[in-house]
Design goal:
Order of helices and strands: HHHHHHHEHEHHEHEHEHEHHHE
CATH topology of the largest domain: Rossmann fold
Mean pLDDT: 83
Number of helices: 16
Number of strands: 7
Low-confidence stretches: none
CATH class of the largest domain: Alpha Beta
Distance between the termini: 53 Å
Helix content: 55-70%
Strand content: 5-15%
Largest sheet: 5 strands, parallel
Shape: globular
């Protein structure tokens, strides 16, 4: 704590000196104060962004030195992991043209009805913004959503794209994406969960907060006061920040119904419910081919035939933990591991074509 307080003092001092050097008011000093006193993620992002803009505009070596010193102290004060996440959020927040994002959405395998639902949502919200700009009333529908379906059906991928889309059309100020689970929301001690939820909401404002397996918050509702405390605070945030925050809760369809029934008024905060179906065999094969192309591998017809048979066997078993797209990614990882082992045991030169080629023997047997 003593070390952290020392960094806090140094940060404030450096920010103040930078303001004096620029002959301006307490702009940077105020941002540092918000970071250190209010744990302000928004202020951290703004400080990093403003320092970057400042260095581009100024050719003075002293300004660059102060900028580097403040960033270094910010790393020390917040920790490198938090700073890395802030940089990622800053990058995610940059505007991407809507057409590029629609292309990214349509490149996802399958999900045809979901793609159309997302396109409909974009059209609806664009018109609502035009109504507001024209002095007309807008719909009272919230931006919050529920994604229902089994694991590995594309829920996280679609959620990320939606955040960027809403940023692109001006519905969200940042468009960044934060993924959370029960451990990110529930504290260890009584009374601290509300504080933890508030901090997470504060980090997510302006973007998307994606809560996977949201029902885990309330799965022990009869005895879990921590879960109830979390849900109370979350439900309040859904209304308080509805104009610059999208909360997407996701999970198995039946368990999500239990989640919504656990708190009066919770379901009414969500206006969009999207069901993600399991992938078909051919869609799973298409995902495998996409992974091959993205990672510069090639599979001939015999290899693809064995991949198809492996996936069909898994579909026939369809156990409770069947994981759709994740299953394909795990299979792909196993295949390239087997290819690496096979090639490493060969004598002589290994050509580029050999490095790319996946063979039938690389595909694992079905259990």
């Amino acid at each position: 704590m003593m070390i952290s307080n020392n960094y806090k003092i140094q940060l404030a001092k450096e920010a103040k000196q930078l303001d004096i050097s620029l002959g301006q008011d307490t702009k940077f000093e105020n941002l540092v104060r918000e970071i250190t006193e209010e744990s302000g993620a928004r202020a951290s992002l703004e400080l990093i962004n403003e320092l970057g803009i400042l260095v581009k505009k100024s050719a003075l070596p002293k300004i660059k030195e102060r900028q580097e010193k403040i960033i270094e102290l910010l790393y020390l004060y917040l920790g490198s992991k938090d700073i890395a996440e802030l940089y990622k959020n800053l990058k995610d927040a940059s505007s991407i043209p809507l057409e590029d994002l629609l292309k990214e959405l349509y490149e996802l395998v399958g999900l045809d009805h979901i793609k159309q639902q997302v396109r409909n949502l974009i059209g609806f919200n664009k018109i609502q913004k035009l109504r507001v700009a024209s002095g007309l009333k807008k719909s009272e529908k919230t931006l919050h959503m529920a994604f229902l379906g089994n694991p590995g059906t594309g829920k996280t991928s679609v959620a990320r794209i939606i955040g960027k889309m809403y940023k692109s059309i001006g519905l969200l100020s940042k468009g960044h994406f934060i993924e959370a689970s029960r451990t990110d929301l529930i504290a260890e001690y009584q009374g601290q969960t509300a504080v933890k939820v508030k901090r997470l909401i504060n980090r997510a404002k302006g973007g998307v907060l994606f809560i996977d397996e949201a029902y885990s918050i309330t799965e022990n509702d009869c005895s879990d006061s921590y879960g109830r405390e979390c849900l109370t605070e979350l439900t309040k945030a859904l209304e308080d920040y509805r104009d610059d925050l999208v909360v997407i809760v996701a999970g198995y369809t039946e368990l999500m119904e239990q989640f919504f029934n656990s708190n009066p008024g919770l379901k009414s905060r969500f206006n969009t419910f999207i069901s993600f179906g399991d992938y078909s065999l051919e869609e799973l094969v298409d995902i495998f081919l996409y992974l091959c192309k993205a990672n510069e591998y090639e599979a001939d017809e015999k290899t693809l035939g064995k991949v198809r048979a492996w996936l069909q066997a898994k579909l026939n078993q369809k156990e409770e933990n069947f994981s759709n797209g994740r299953l394909v990614r795990n299979l792909f990882d196993d295949i390239i591991m087997n290819q690496s082992i096979r090639l490493s045991e060969q004598d002589g030169n290994i050509s580029k074509e050999m490095l790319k080629a996946l063979e039938e023997s690389d595909v694992p047997r079905t259990e």
